[in-house]
Amino acid sequence: MIYDCDGVLFDSLESNTKLYNDLCTRLGRLPLTADELNFVHTHTVYEAIHFILRHDIQQEKRALDLWKQLDIVEYLAYLRMEPHLLETLESLKNQGILRAICTSRSTTMKLIMERFHLWPYFDMVVTALDVKNPKPHPESIAKIIETFHLDREKTILVGDSVIDRQTAESAGIFFVAYKNKEIAGDFFIDDHLALLALLANGPKREKRKL
Q: Are strands 80-81 and 10-11 parallel, antiparallel or unpaired?
């Protein structure tokens, strides 16, 4: 079982909004628009900065310097863990099912794992820093599959964005849309516990709500 982070493990919209709007304030520009917020929520920090600063190289350099000065821990306080997540992860662990994270986050992921004591629940974490090509390129998924010699037909990615769906498709694995019916692929769920029902029934490539 492979999980995206933002929007799946955590409701991170408030955290990301505050973080990037503070960065915008320091850069002397207006807060993020709805489209910009949607973009930064699903892309790496480098892609996000490149997007919101409209390819202004000097501003991008300044933004990256400011990023290094931000106290990221301050913004982690606004993360909200999704309901029944730990209960589900514990059940998967007891069933001997490997659990991994595939995220567009970079340096912040380690802080999140430590703050919320998630290391015991996951066998592997792949961030944007661990690959040359971030999502939706399949490299991050391939890294997990190759490490544990997984069967693609038995591998599932749980995500909440188009980027996640494209990642699963490019990697040739199942995709479960979490709380986002608009991107529903093989399955749609609105609670983590539903993953247990999915595994109990055996996944089949058809659209249905669990």
A: antiparallel
